[in-house]
Amino acid sequence: MPELREAGPLQKVVVIDLPGQKVREQYETMFKDLAGAPGVNPDEIPESEKEQIRKDVRDKLIRQMFQDAVKESKLKILGNPGYPKPDGSEIDDAAVAKVEIPFNVWECQLTELGSCRRNAHIKTPVAELDARYKTKINELCDGLELPGFRRGKAPKGLIEKRMGKLCRRDVKAGIISDLFQELHDEGGFRLVGMPEYPDVDKMPEEVENIFEFDVVFDIWPEVEPPPYKGLKISRPSGEFTPEKLDEQLHDYLERMTPTEEAPADSTAEGDDYLNCAYVLTIDGAEVRRKDSDAYAFMGINGLDGINIAGLKEALLGAKIGDTREVETDFPETEPDKALAGKHGKFAIKVNSIKRRPKRELNDETAKFFGYDNLTAMRADFKERFQRGLENQIQQTVRRQAEDALLASAQFDLPESLVELQTQRNVQRTMSQLMRNGMPIEQIQTRAESIAGVSREEAVRSFRLSAILEKIADAEKIFVTENQISATIENLARAQSVAPQALWRHMEREELLSALRRDLREQAVVDFLIEKAEIENIDVNAEPTGEKAEG
Amino acid sequence: MKLKPHQVIIRPIHTEKSVSDMQGNNTYHLVVHRKAGKDDVKRAIETLFAQNDVKVTNVRTCMMPGKPRRYRYSASRTPSWKKAIVTLRRGDTIDIGI
């Protein structure tokens, strides 16, 4: 029975008994294998070869017995155990050799810092640090080329003096990440984000020959999936009635009919577009002038990109050639610093008037939009609107299923993960607003509300992901490679690129796992809807999912 | 000019040759002040390493000429310097960072 004893702080020694009889048996087997090989005469096998076999046999047995001894103790072994040098001496069948194998171990204590946060307190013997340091310095000695020395000829002392601190630091950082990785590989938790390793430069000196450190990390929450079968979902349903279709078509005509030049004697009205010239004065001094092509959009009170309250009322009834005056207070957030917070006076002269002609729903209008007749136009638009309506209904149903799941599952999320995703969402929203032409000052004033919404979005998406993943595991819902291929083909067709090229791009950018996860989540939501108790509600919903375009 | 010990010894020379000389002959190669003589070097070593009770048995010195350098169209030279090769009594050692 192997004996296990302490040899120092976190250092142990295993003493194993190596019976000569066992060595003899193994030796005989190996010798027979060698002697039985074709073309080998057993009497001619040299003594050196026999010695090598004895070394191999002893080494193999020692390692095997050590592994068996340690397996029972469940110790966490660090580095390589100090196996003795192989002994090739003659075998004494009656003798039992005592073999001592020293080795280092490490210990870890996990503490809960929150529902999703853990602290790992890890202890290792300094002897392991020293061993790794020695190996590293030896490696440097072999490969380093210092001025005044050929490669590998620089003395160890000099290298230690010049690079010892750096090496020690590297060794510490390496041991920290190695042991944490080992802890992670042992399982028991699912790591989220980057663990917070200690700062090696600020670590205190080792005491009592023990190197200890803490690693703080976030873990994915343990989620118990809520009851997910038989969710109560109300499904709005409704056909596109002829009245609804007409309403939508009129709306479409109003938006899509091109504007035309109004007659010379007409007056500005409603939502006309006016080509104007204007002069802007502040405190009697002219600050801006434009002689033509300054467009006034009466519907939105906008002139040349400036929002002017009361513009529509001022221009109503104006004829071509008329000049109207309107005063406004510029807000402090006005992008043009010269105007911000000031009171301005516009003198606006109307050069021309453009307006959308009223179109009736008839064959002529249908032909104008490229259809054979009104019936064909109605049929096409009905299909489009219906598709939009169905999309919207589908979205509503999915959202309800997701909301029902989220409402019945309460669990915390790792703060670092939420924070990271919130930051990404904020950046994405801000860049989107900037692309849409919103001034930076205005975006900054809304930063707080953007951050709030982004955080809610991040929390929702992570919580949902966690629940859906558990349900997918429970119901064994997986995504096949064929489904991924089909999705990529569809994406490639939509982007007019080769599917292989898109696949390669996604592989390179590591987007395939995200796609796989999205598809799996979609499949789970489909499953939930399939198993839900759906109540149909007849509501004529507005189709917003797909706006008809001319 | 009287040089103080810490002014005489500038730095040790770490090369394969110096290391081999140090290990084989107990001889140390040093960069010293260009105006320092052999006596100055001997005194400086014995003073600076007095706590080791070292005895210098031999000092050889030589001027190492500067090397020509060129930057664009202007030619120059690196400064010349003095090397001292100091042999210590058998068994004495000094720490020069190796």
Q: If helices are DSSP runs of H or I spanning 4 or more residues, what is the number of helices of chain A? A: 14
Helix tally of chain B equals 3
CATH class value of chain B:
Alpha Beta
Q: Unreliable runs of chain A, pLDDT <50, ≥5 residues?
A: 543-550
What string, H for helix and E for strand, traces the elements of chain B in order? HEHEHEEEE
Number of strands of chain B: 6
Q: How many independent structural domains of chain B?
A: 1
Q: Could you give a short account of the major beta sheet of chain A?
A: 7 strands, antiparallel
Assigned CATH architecture of chain B? 2-Layer Sandwich
Silhouette of chain B: globular
Number of strands of chain A: 17
Query: Which pair of protein chains has the largest interface, and what are the residue counts?
Result: A-B, 9 and 8 residues
- Please tell me the overall pLDDT of chain B: 94
Summary keywords:
heterodimer, A: 550 residues, alpha+beta, seven-stranded antiparallel sheet, four-stranded antiparallel sheet, 14 helices, elongated, B: 98 residues, Alpha-Beta Plaits, two-stranded antiparallel ribbon
What does this 3D model show about the protein?
The complex is a heterodimer of chains A (550) and B (98). Chain A has helices at 20-35, 47-73, 126-143, 156-186, 242-256, 311-315, 363-368, 374-408, 415-435, 440-445, 447-475, 481-495, 499-508, 512-531, and strands at 3-8, 11-19, 77-78, 96-105, 107-112, 117-125, 191-196, 210-219, 232-237, 260-261, 273-282, 285-297, 302-303, 306-307, 323-329, 343-355, 533-538. Chain A has 550 residues and is an alpha+beta fold. In chain A, strands 10, 11, 12, 13, 14, 15 and 16 form a seven-stranded antiparallel beta sheet that branches. In chain A, a hairpin with a 4-residue loop joins β12 and β13. The longest helix of chain A is centred in the last third of the chain and has 35 residues, at 374-408. Chain A starts with a strand and ends in a 12-residue tail after the last strand. With 98 residues, chain B is an alpha+beta fold. Chain B has a single domain (5-88), classed as RRM (RNA recognition motif) domain (Alpha-Beta Plaits), CATH 3.30.70. Chain B contains three helices and six strands. Chain B has a four-stranded antiparallel beta sheet. Chain B starts with a helix and ends in a 10-residue tail after the last strand. The interface between A and B is small, with 9 and 8 residues.
